[in-house]
Every structure is written in structure tokens, then in C-alpha cells.
């Protein structure tokens, strides 16, 4: 039997890459604090019904991409394909709508699961960072949410970004548009794939999203939602754009932008990478407003807006723009023991250094001094502390600063303080 490999569409983050992940997570945590979004952690699996009702029965996500299973108690559970439905469930279940300060501003980072065809930037397990602001329909919060998404990319070092914006309108506008779409496609619906035929009455907007019938001539001439926005929806959209202008955030309006999830209305947006060499998938983040979702999931009227981005695509974009992040966290001190007696002392010295906030390491394979020295070099230790017979006798260790080759005898009790001082001098 062959060796077991990671399942298709999954991958390991190895130590040489995890520093990048940590740096991005730090950026996310820092910015969310600046914008005052608080972290929420919800389960990785939920009742399947949550996504059927939340994300929508006619979406590709629910129809084709969910990891759904029966547990031993015969419940239908699903690994979350996205975060919004879970966060809204939690907002309702924990009565966050009752908190005096609305909107409740939340963020999350964690793995999501979709059974998709894996390619660059498309995985079956991927990590989304997302935010949800629930309990306000102020267009200024739409602009804030978009600004936060852009800020995460800019703070990470990305430059080639494009913000694409659309309004999906309110229920009335959407119904008018839906009717127009049905009338547009119905006479020729037999020429479309089975999925589209099913979508015609239920959710004709999804037809525009179809990958199979993309080239059908009726696609290009389909009625545009922009022409069916009522006055209120247009006014709302104008205000969102006004706030974005105020914030100096540039955008392009694309009336064909439809999102792959059913809960959206009014503001919808995507952020694309314009970096050269990016594969077929250039969407970095997507989001929008969902004014009916809280009610659909059993809560009181609480309009919301949010977005999500995968860390994988952010990392891909950084690579394409040749932005380097996550430099290896440096090793302060490598402690070398020359013999068995010195090793005991080395173990204690390493502990003392760490207790003082100095990163420290040593050899655990009983290698000769020369090999340990090489190891210290490879690990790019700033200082090497050498302990041997004579050091044990004199009560002092030899401390060598690798960059300058300066060497000094330092009493064991003063090692931490000495290295700390040298460290801060060099910084
Ligand atoms: P979404 O457009 O389905 O929206 O996904 C958002 C982002 O997740 C995408 O732009 C992409 O960065 C990432 N993503 C999605 N699928 C994959 C995949 N298979 N591999 C790697 N990355 C992926 C949502 O999920 C909504 N919940 C966003 C939202 C939050 N809307 C309002 N609030």
C-alpha cells in the first residue's frame, strides 16, 4: 500500500511558511482592533439546514459543494462552506440584537470547506477572514466594511487592487428584475443547461452566473438590474459611493457583478487583484449587504453587511506582486555544550534565557562543538553561548556575537541581562 497523502484540495502549512500566516493574522487582528470589530468563533460544522436557508437552496455552494454528513445520532451536519450564516445564527441564538450598541461588529478567521475543483487559489479547505456588521443599514457602515477589507490588503503590502461595486437593490427592485429575467430567458430556456432550466422560476439571477452557458447570446443581452433599481435603492447606492469618495477609496461600478450567495441585497462588492501572472481566479474578496438574513434565520429585523477573503488568495497575490512577508523569527542565543557535564548547565542556561524573554536553543543530538557551531550559523543565531570544562570552573560562559565576532566572558548569573543589553544596543 502506498503512503497516505493529504486529501485533494487540502495542504499543509509547513514551518517555512507559517510565519507568513502569522504575520497576516497579526495584521488582521491589529486592523480589526483599530476598526473595533470583535472576534467571534463559531463551530466548524453546523446543521445542514442553516446553509440551505442562509446561503440559499439554488446556489452552487449548497447544491454541489457542501461536505454534508450524517452523524451517529442521524443528524445532517455540514462543514461550513462560509462564515456569514454561522455568525448570523449566533447573533440570533445569543440575542446579540439585544445589545445596546448596534451594529454589532464581528470578525472571524478559520477554515471553510467547499467541494470545488482545486486549482491555484481554489482549495477544498481554505481559511477565510471575514467581518460582519449586523444591526445597521447606514450606508456609512457599508463604506467602513469595504475600507477595512482594502486596508488589510494595503497593510499587507498589495498595490494592484481593483474594487468592483454594484447594487443588487431592495426586494421590490429585485422582484421587478427577476420578472424581466424570466421573460427574457423563458422563450429559449430549452437551449440552456438543466441547472439553468431549474433556476428559471426559482432564481433566474443565478443563470447569469452559469459556467456552462456563459457564451449563450442571451447572456449578453439580459436585462440589467441597474435598470430596475427603485428610487430608494438608487439613493442608498449613491450614499455608499459618496462615503467611499469621502474615504478616498476608488471603485468601478460593474452592473453585472452578481454574487454566488442568495442573501445579498443593495451593496455587493468584490476586490480583485490586478497583479500580473495571477491565474484564472483574480477575486481576492467578496461581500455585500444582507438585510433579510437575520429575519430568515429567526431573528428580528437587523440589516447586516460583511465580506470574506481567503488567506490563500492573499498570499498568492503577495507572491505575484513579489512582496515578502514573514521573515523567519530570529534566534537570539544558541547554547553550545562541549561535554556531558556542561550539557546539564546548558539546559539550565537555556531555561533562564527563555524565562527572560530571550529566544534560545541548543543541540539535542550530542554533536561535536564544530557541528553545533554550524547549526548556530544555519539558525542565524545572534549570539552563541559556549559552556565547557573551563567555563564551569570559572563560573563564566563565553558569549560570542556572531555578526561582530566579539567575544566576552560573562558570569552565568548575568547571561540574560548581558544578552538583553547587547540585543537592545543592536536594535
Ligand atoms: P464568497 O464570495 O463565497 O463569499 O467567498 C469569499 C472569499 O472567500 C472569496 O473571494 C475567496 O477569497 C475565498 N474563497 C471562496 N472559495 C474559495 C476556495 N475554494 N478556495 C480559496 N478561497 C476561496 C462568502 O463566503 C461570504 N460569506 C462573504 C460575506 C461575508 N458576505 C457578507 N459577509
DSSP E strands, number: 16
Task: Specify the oligomeric state.
Answer: single chain
- CATH architectural category of the largest domain: 2-Layer Sandwich
Q: So, the CATH homologous superfamily of the largest domain? A: Bira Bifunctional Protein, Domain 2
Task: Count every helix, treating DSSP H or I runs of 4 or more residues as helices.
Answer: 15
What CATH first level of the largest domain would be assigned? Alpha Beta
Q: Point out poorly predicted stretches.
A: none
The structural class is alpha+beta
How much is the radius of gyration in Å?
A: 28 Å
Largest sheet: 8 strands, mixed
Terminal CA distance: 54 Å
Bound molecules: histidyl-adenosine monophosphate
What percent of residues are in strands?
15-25%
Mean pLDDT: 95
Outline type: elongated
Widest sheet: strand ordering: 1-5-6-11-10-9-7-8
Supply the number of structural domains: 2
Helical proportion? 25-40%
CATH topology name of the largest domain, in short, is BirA Bifunctional Protein, domain 2
Amino acid at each position: 500500500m502506498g503512503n497516505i497523502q493529504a486529501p485533494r484540495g487540502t495542504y499543509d502549512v509547513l514551518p517555512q511558511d507559517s510565519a507568513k500566516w502569522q504575520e497576516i493574522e497579526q495584521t488582521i487582528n491589529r486592523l480589526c482592533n483599530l476598526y473595533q470589530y470583535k472576534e467571534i468563533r463559531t463551530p466548524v460544522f453546523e446543521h445542514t439546514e442553516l446553509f440551505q436557508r442562509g446561503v440559499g437552496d439554488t446556489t452552487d455552494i449548497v447544491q454541489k459543494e457542501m461536505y454534508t454528513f450524517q452523524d451517529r445520532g442521524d443528524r445532517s451536519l455540514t462543514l461550513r462552506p462560509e462564515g456569514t450564516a454561522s455568525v448570523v445564527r449566533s447573533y440570533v441564538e445569543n440575542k446579540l440584537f439585544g445589545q445596546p450598541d448596534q451594529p454589532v461588529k464581528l470578525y472571524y478567521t478559520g477554515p471553510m470547506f467547499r467541494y470545488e475543483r482545486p486549482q491555484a487559489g481554489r482549495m477544498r479547505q481554505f481559511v477565510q477572514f471575514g467581518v460582519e456588521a449586523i444591526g445597521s443599514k447606514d450606508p456609512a457602515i457599508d463604506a467602513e466594511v469595504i475600507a477595512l477589507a482594502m486596508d488589510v490588503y494595503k497593510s499587507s503590502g498589495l498595490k494592484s487592487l481593483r474594487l468592483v461595486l454594484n447594487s443588487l437593490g431592495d426586494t421590490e427592485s429585485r422582484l421587478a428584475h427577476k420578472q424581466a429575467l424570466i421573460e427574457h430567458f423563458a422563450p429559449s430556456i430549452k437551449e440552456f443547461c438543466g441547472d439553468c432550466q431549474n433556476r428559471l422560476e426559482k432564481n433566474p439571477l443565478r443563470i447569469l452566473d452559469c459556467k456552462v452557458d456563459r457564451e449563450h447570446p442571451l447572456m449578453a443581452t439580459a436585462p440589467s438590474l441597474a435598470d430596475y433599481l427603485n428610487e430608494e435603492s438608487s439613493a442608498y447606492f449613491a450614499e455608499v459611493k459618496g462615503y467611499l469618495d469621502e474615504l478616498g477609496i476608488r471603485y468601478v461600478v460593474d452592473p453585472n457583478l452578481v454574487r454566488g450567495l442568495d442573501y445579498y441585497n443593495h451593496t455587493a462588492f468584490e476586490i480583485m487583484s490586478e497583479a500580473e501572472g495571477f491565474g484564472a481566479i483574480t477575486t481576492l474578496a467578496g461581500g455585500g449587504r444582507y438585510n433579510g438574513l437575520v429575519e430568515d434565520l429567526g431573528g428580528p429585523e437587523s440589516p447586516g453587511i460583511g465580506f470574506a477573503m481567503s488567506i490563500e488568495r492573499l498570499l498568492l497575490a503577495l507572491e505575484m506582486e513579489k512582496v515578502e512577508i514573514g521573515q523567519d523569527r530570529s534566534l537570539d542565543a544558541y547554547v553550545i555544550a562541549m561535554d556531558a557535564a556542561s550539557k546539564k548547565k546548558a539546559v539550565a542556561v537555556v531555561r533562564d534565557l527563555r524565562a527572560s524573554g530571550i529566544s534560545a536553543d541548543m543541540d539535542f543530538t550530542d554533536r561535536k562543538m564544530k557541528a553545533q557551531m554550524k547549526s548556530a550559523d544555519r539558525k542565524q543565531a545572534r549570539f552563541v553561548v559556549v559552556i565547557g570544562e573551563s567555563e564551569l570552573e570559572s563560573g563564566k560562559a563565553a558569549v560570542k556575537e556572531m555578526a561582530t565576532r566579539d567575544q566576552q566572558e560573562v558570569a552565568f548569573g548575568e547571561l540574560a541581562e548581558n544578552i538583553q543589553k547587547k540585543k537592545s544596543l543592536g536594535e
